[in-house]
Amino acid sequence: MIVGLSLGHRTLREADHWLTEQVTGLGPDLVACTHLVAEPYPHVALSVAGPAAERLAELAATPPELRAAAARAAGEHAARRSGRAVRFPGAERLVGALTVGELLAAGAVARVVALGGAPVTPDTLVHTRDFVRPQWQDGELVLVTMPHHAGGLAPFEVPDPTPCCAGH
What we know:
The chain is α+β, with helices and mostly antiparallel strands. Helix content is 23%, strand content 31%. It is built from four helices and ten strands, in the order βαββααββαβββββ. The chain has helices spanning 12-23, 53-59, 67-79, 100-106; strands at 2-9, 31-37, 43-49, 84-87, 97-99, 109-114, 125-127, 135-137, 140-147, 153-155. The strands form three sheets. Strands 1-3-2-4 form a four-stranded antiparallel β-sheet. Strands 6, 8, 9 and 10 form a four-stranded mixed β-sheet that branches. The protein starts with a strand and ends in a 13-residue tail after the last strand.
């Protein structure tokens, strides 16, 4: 079962925090994703798949004006076209530095790609920074990475990004 929710979260950080609080204890097979949506205003919708997804939908009702965004998030997740996975099987094992082979063996991530064409082999080291957010692409959860200053790769998305124009 896949459930879409749209609660008006304005940022990925807000949505991640809410999902993390709510999905704890709902089972290891849960896949919870965020989706950037523009209608009726820019916000982050959510999709949750797994046996306990319906229980999460019972905790928070999507307001009527956001139901289309929730349905879109659920549809994108069901088609495995888009969605940024916050919780997924094996996520808790993706900490520290792992090889690509270890990362792929740990759970639901099916592929690792590197921006800029950096080579990705099973032995390539990935510095996870304990923050891994793969995205649905063409039916697979794909982790997008970039070269890391210490060698190897790191997830493209950083855990604590500096807000735009910070300090100005």
